Amino acid sequence: MDRKTTSRPGGRSARVQEAVHAAVRELDAELGREKLTVPLVAARAGVTPSTIYRRWGDLQALLSDIAVERLRPDSPPDDRGSLLADLRTWAEQFLDEMSSAPGRAYLRDALVGDPAGNAMRCSDYAADQIDVILRRAAERGERTVGTETVLDRVVAPIVYRVLCRPGPLAPGYAEGLVDDLLGN
């Protein structure tokens, strides 16, 4: 069984995870990513390196786990009163966050450490946000599209551009994707 799914949500396991995650963030800020090592992280977190290896396997898997947690939205999407306004606002915020230097690094880390599991978790975060927007629109009586359609036509192009074609995008790029999706 996968250790991540069998660990308790609280207690010592949660304290260790929190301490290790905090240690990585602190050391990354102080020393830079290239100088991070499992022994340094373990010493800062107050655990043994074997604890990190047992739980995460290696440094990249640990960085991936942290990245996925950092990519989790901390609030529901804004309610602007219409599907068009809600999706435009959400897509612009998503693009801003993912195209920032930390956002790009988190995306890369999330996909490198455990591509299947972490990619799905990241996708689920976006899908959950989109579900909220679509549910609100349906409750207002608006015609909606499916979550998978929004992922394919708005989220996927943004992630592709952020990871594979980094560089400045035309103003309104994300809004344009939403407008194309909704036929505006």
From TrEMBL:
Pfam families associated with the record: TetR_C_11, TetR_N
Highest taxon above the source species: Bacteria
Annotated keywords: DNA-binding, Transcription, Transcription regulation
Keyword DNA-binding: yes
Domain HTH tetR-type as annotated: residue spans: 14-74
SUPFAM superfamilies, per the entry: Homeodomain-like, Tetracyclin repressor-like, C-terminal domain
GO MF annotation, one: transcription cis-regulatory region binding
DNA-binding residues (ranges): 37-56
Listed name of the protein: TetR family transcriptional regulator
